[in-house]
Amino acid sequence: MRESGWQFRCPSRPRGEAAAGHPMNGAMFPLWQVDRGEYELACAHLGLTPRDRIYEMLSEYLARAPFTFAPPRGLARALAQRRLTAFRLARLDLASRWFFPAHPIRHILNAVLALHECDGAGYREMARAPIGRTAWLALAGWTLRAAANHAITLSWLAAQCLAWTAWKPFAGGAAAAGRRVLITGVNRGLGMDLMLECLERGARVIGTVRTEASRSELLARLPASAPVTLLVADLSQPGMITDALDAAGVLPASLDMVVLSAGTKHDGQSVLSLERVRDTFQVNCFSAMEVAAWLCAAGVGQGASPSEPAAGPGERDPRTALVLVSSMGRWHGMHSTAGYNASKAALSIWAESLEMELHLTGKRRPSVTIVEPGLFESGMVGRRAGLGLLFASRRRVAGRILDGAVAGRKVLRPPFWFALVTWAVCLGGRGLRQRLFARAKPKAPR
After folding, report:
1. Burial class (CB in 10 A: 0-12, 13-18, 19+), 219
2. How would you class 306 by CB atoms within 10 Å of its CB: exposed for 0-12, middle for 13-18, buried for 19 or more?
3. Rounded to the nearest 5°, which phi and psi values hold at 183?
């Protein structure tokens, strides 16, 4: 089957056999993948019956799509970010035929058709057609529906275009195609979402994980075609991350962006548990310093004139972006975390000091971005009763971080409203914070 230069080859795997290394879910690359409910909507739109086996094959195929096709840009990307409904699916089907032939929805619908066509029951279902007088009535009904759909879609698309144009200055989705990005702690949490967001935008990723077991587990979940290199580096061991990078032949000058997102928190441990505090500072702060020193000692960005112009719109900024992920918790203390907030405060202040030194010496590279995110669901912060409204989408936070780093932002605090709440609490004084955080977090064991 071919449409708009698109080609799909029916898989020949035996029934029920999953290809190694490919995920069977629709959450990894949401621009391209669909969950079970969206697959059923696509089947209803095409007049097909959903089948579990076909959905598994569809998920496997779409997991490879970000590495096969160019990422959507502009309005096409904005339309692809929204969850599918029956109405939106019908509009995108027609709009992608007219204006966006490479839109993800085109690949999704074409893949659904091709997979059902390769299935015996699906083929028989697709081959059914009215005959005789019924065929003429069906043709007349199809013509009327098509005319109505075209009119509705044109109006809907015009409204979407106007809304996107108004929101464009604030929209994210900065291009990352061709960039080489180093991310620490990619086996879980924010690090994993940063990696997936980079891959979905067309970047190549070098990720670090703590153990060989974590590396094997992550490789099994990622599509085999994903441009990812995984290195094992236990950040709690001084110098291990730079040794791993050197052993893998990674050169500082080859990196377009370095995102130091790995972190650890020893919940329930007192700030007087010195062994845990040392581990917290090593992972959250000192390992980031080691990577930054590795970048600067190798001469990344040396020789750049302070008057060197930055990249213009649509151009690639030649500076390596150093992104250090701190926390909004760095603005206040917190008991029973073995000094987690203190380590993040140290990281933020150290990163600002590094930027000062680079500026004073006339070096413009690497650029330094300090990220202080608010609450988002992770292994470090579980959802607690009454706090659900404070949690931000982790994938959205990852997207904001990449957008800000590409734009050369100095400080990012997503979501900003949480920063305002934090600062208000800080202005309330230590007594207020003690009472507030005592209710929100259990005490450390004595």
Report:
1. middle
2. exposed
3. -130, 130
CATH fold of 180-440 reads Rossmann fold (3.40.50)
Concatenating the DSSP letter of every residue in 190-244 gives HHHHHHHHHHHTT-EEEEEESSHHHHHHHHHHS-TTS-EEEEE--TTSTTHHHHH
End-to-end CA distance of the chain: 68
Residues 14-23: tens digit of each pLDDT: 323 333 333 3
Least confident of 47-56, 99-108, 315-324: 315-324
Torsion (CA) 226, 231, 232, 235 in degrees, nearest 10: -110
Question: Phi and psi of 252, rounded to 5°?
Answer: -55, -40
Higher-confidence residue: 122 or 31?
31
Taking the model in full, what pTM does it have?
A: 0.83
In the chain, what are the domain boundaries? 2-127, 180-440
Q: Which residues contact 217 (CB under 8 A, 6 or more apart)?
A: 187
Q: What is the pLDDT, as a whole number, of residue 167? A: 80
Of 346 and 2, the structure prediction assigns the larger pLDDT to 346
Q: Of 231 and 178, which is predicted with more confidence?
A: 231
**Length of the chain in residues, anyone?**
446
Q: Please, are residues 418 and 328 in contact by the beta-carbon 8 Å criterion? A: yes
Pair of tokens at residue 38: 């969206």
Closest CA to 184 of 71, 286, 306: 286
pLDDT band, residue 71 (cuts 50/70/90):
confident
Q: Please give the backbone phi and psi of residue 323, each rounded to the nearest 5 degrees, phi first.
A: -115, 120
For residue 226, which phi and psi values (nearest 5 degrees)? Answer: -65, 130
Closest alpha carbon to 376 in 100, 190, 207: 190
Cis peptide before 30 (omega within 30 of 0): no
Q: How far apart are CA 395 and CA 405, in angstroms?
A: 15
SS3 content of the chain, % helix, strand, coil (to 5): 50, 10, 40
